[in-house]
Amino acid sequence: MATALFVGIKDLFQRVRPAGAVPLHLVSYSFPSGHATASTAVLVTLAYVLAREGLLSHEVALLVGFFGPLLVGLSRIYLDVHWTTDVLGGWGLGLVVAALSAAAYEHMRARIARISV
Asked: Which end of the chain is more exposed for a tag (fewer CB within 10 A), N or C?
């Protein structure tokens, strides 16, 4: 879901990448950052599910869900392949995907609980 969304949005905005991303100019557009989107969607969802199931403490889940995407996003800016707003947009889009994933997870969890009663 995250990949389909960021590819569609990249095609919609067609934002050119920063100067450091010259070889990537021919491959894809800049906004939003796919790495920031995917890492946020995956790590926040994973942290939520693992904490909900008691496999991670809430503190560790917060660290994973926060610092993982943060480091990925900052690396995209540091490497000069994305603008800061690309990363911010990717984080926001990733959070939307993670929220939808968490809602789907809770829906399935409740459904399984009803069936097993």
From this structure: C
Q: Residue 100: which H helix or E strand, with range?
A: helix 84-115
CB atoms within 10 A of CB 14: 9
Q: 1: how many CB neighbours lie within 10 A of its CB? A: 11
Residue 98 lies in domain: 2-115
pLDDT digit string, tens, across residues 48-72: 999 999 999 999 999 999 999 999 9
State the 10-residue block means of pLDDT for the chain, 117 residues long: 87 86 74 95 97 96 97 95 95 97 95 84
Q: Provide the domain count of the chain.
A: 1
Cα distance between residue 36 and residue 51, in whole Å: 22
Q: What is the CATH number of the domain that holds 93?
A: 1.20.144.10
* Predicted model pTM: 0.86
Would you please indicate which residues are annotated as catalytic (active-site) residues?
Answer: 35, 82
